[in-house]
Design goal:
Outer membrane efflux proteins (OEP)
Length: 519
């Protein structure tokens, strides 16, 4: 037994020594990597915004929870619900989980793989099988040691063993794959941030539009009621012979014209609330009751800080997403380049055979094999070179997409800031216009009742007043919408916790079980 032990220890020592030499050589060679190393892209941006004026501070913008500055608790609650229930956000969370799993998958290729196997066979025939040792061979080193001293059935053979393999990352193919996967995780996370930014902007804009339709509905109903009262008085005057039939007809027609706008406003309001409900991940009619009570139109206060253009490159999720995709595509160029170089794999196996299961590893034959294998791509019709060119072209596209994202971000901020401040001036002018028309309408009614003017002046004044007040409401909606667009352009989004680890679908009973899905 001591002799057997010495043989096994000698085999093991020889195996370990050769393994150490091979591993050391592999680790020395594994220090290099082919392909380009990623460098952060740079792009010249202006030092300040062209739209910056006396009312636009250049200090860093306050992007965290920017919608709360509209002071609308219901809006705050709807945004919380949307973040938790929106389906686009749920999809983005699933993409983060997918990217993380792909990264773990890529990282796993850098480690050796080990498999275990157990088998048993029974055969019969006129001859008798010798219980001697089995053997395994390798391209480099192999050995078989027979330590069988037991007996068993002549036709029985049991085997157990391990197979191991490890591909040395000599030219960085595995490392480049891991880099690409890691950049993919970053890109997925920025994609989630971009989805949240878009969602919050859409929820806020839809909410503001819904309140705007409510305000326009209230104005149309009040104006129609006032015009109907004027038409009633005009009709009474006509019946008393103090007014013409033309005045009565014009008054009735104007009142009905105003009332005819109400169904269109009601339809637009319902559609907006339906869309808002879906944004929160609920059925279209879910928010009708909660939104039924009219509330004041959310209005932001000026000024709004813009910071400097360079801030946008750090805050905008779509810009960061494009940059991470460019980094990922750069790593894939190296991965494709590494495929053109030789690859070395280490393989090994250990097998024990016996005629009885209890003799495995004790009274059995033990065989082992260990050695490297070298694979050199000699001819592939230009396929590997073309693969590198494909990866390079995809990298160019990613770089161009990043540049486009930067330019669009700068354009969005400039456009939204100009629109916001111009709309603020328009609101001031419309307020003055509506006040003047209100005075004109009051005077026209007084003069008409006194017989000092025609009813046409009353009609003109009331129509002008309604149009001015309706335009003022629409301008206020646009003003708040531009405020939303500016905060989106600056990169303002959700900064709270998002659970990206819990799947939407949780499977149960995934182990071995009877298939109950068959007909």
């Amino acid at each position: 037994m001591n002799a057997i032990t010495s043989i096994v220890m000698s085999v093991t020592a020889t195996c370990h020594a050769r393994t150490a030499v091979t591993l050391a050589s592999g680790l020395v060679l594994a220090g290099c990597a082919v392909g380009p190393d990623y460098r952060q892209p740079e792009m010249a941006v202006p030092d300040k915004w062209a739209s910056v004026g006396a009312m636009t501070p250049a200090s860093r913008p306050e992007l965290a929870q920017w919608w709360t500055r509209l002071n609308d608790p219901l809006l705050d609650g709807l945004i919380d619900e949307a973040v938790a229930g929106n389906l686009d956000v749920a999809t983005a969370r699933a993409k983060v989980r997918e990217a993380r799993a792909l990264y773990r998958q890529a990282a796993g290729t850098a480690w050796p793989s080990l498999r275990a196997s157990v088998s048993g066979t029974r055969s019969g025939g006129p001859g008798r099988m010798s219980p001697g040792a089995s053997s395994t061979t390798s391209s480099t080193t192999s050995s078989t040691t027979n330590i069988n001293s037991g007996t068993g059935n002549a036709g029985d053979l049991f085997q157990a063993g391990f197979d191991a393999s490890w591909e040395l990352d000599l030219f960085g193919a595995s490392r480049r794959a891991q880099e690409a996967a890691k950049y993919g995780v970053d890109a997925a996370q920025w994609g989630l941030s971009a989805a949240l930014l878009t969602l919050i902007g859409d929820v806020t804009s839809s909410y503001v539009q819904a309140r705007g339709y409510q305000a326009r509905l209230a104005l149309a109903r009040d104006t129609a009621a006032s015009q109907e009262e004027t038409a009633r008085i005009t009709r009474l005057k006509f019946e008393a012979g103090a007014s013409s039939g033309l005045d009565a007809a014009n008054a009735a027609g104007q009142a009905q014209s105003t009332r005819a706008a109400i169904p269109a406003f009601e339809a637009a309001y319902a559609q907006t609330v339906h869309g808002l409900s879906v944004l929160t991940g609920q059925p279209p009619e879910a928010l009708l009751d909660r939104m039924e009570q009219p509330e004041p139109l959310p209005t932001p206060t000026l000024p709004v800080s813009l910071g400097v253009p360079a801030d946008v490159l750090l805050a905008r999720p779509d810009v960061r997403l494009a940059e991470r995709r460019y980094a990922q595509s750069t790593a894939k160029v190296g991965q494709a380049e590494a495929a053109r170089y030789p690859s070395v794999s280490l393989t090994g196996s250990l097998i024990t055979s016996a005629t009885r299961p209890g003799d495995l590893g004790q009274r059995s034959s033990i065989g082992w094999a260990f050695g490297p294998s070298l694979t050199v791509p000699l001819f592939n019709g230009g396929r590997l070179k073309a693969g590198v060119e494909v990866a390079q072209a995809e990298r160019d596209q990613s770089f161009i997409a990043w540049r486009a994202a930067v330019l669009n971000a700068l354009k969005d901020v400039e456009g939204a800031s100009v629109a916001l401040y111009q709309e603020n001036e328009r609101i001031a002018a419309l307020r003055t216009s509506a006040a003047s028309y209100r005075t004109a309408a009051d005077l026209a009614r007084l003069l008409y009742r006194a017989g000092s003017t025609s009813f046409l002046d009353v009609l003109t004044a009331e129509r002008s007043l309604y149009l001015a007040e309706d335009a003022l409401i629409q301008s206020r909606v646009l003003f708040t919408t531009h405020y939303v667009a500016l905060n989106k352009a600056l990169g303002g989004g959700w900064n709270g916790h998002i659970d990206t680890s819990t799947p939407e679908v949780v499977d149960a009973h995934t182990g071995p079980h009877l298939d109950t899905t068959r007909d």
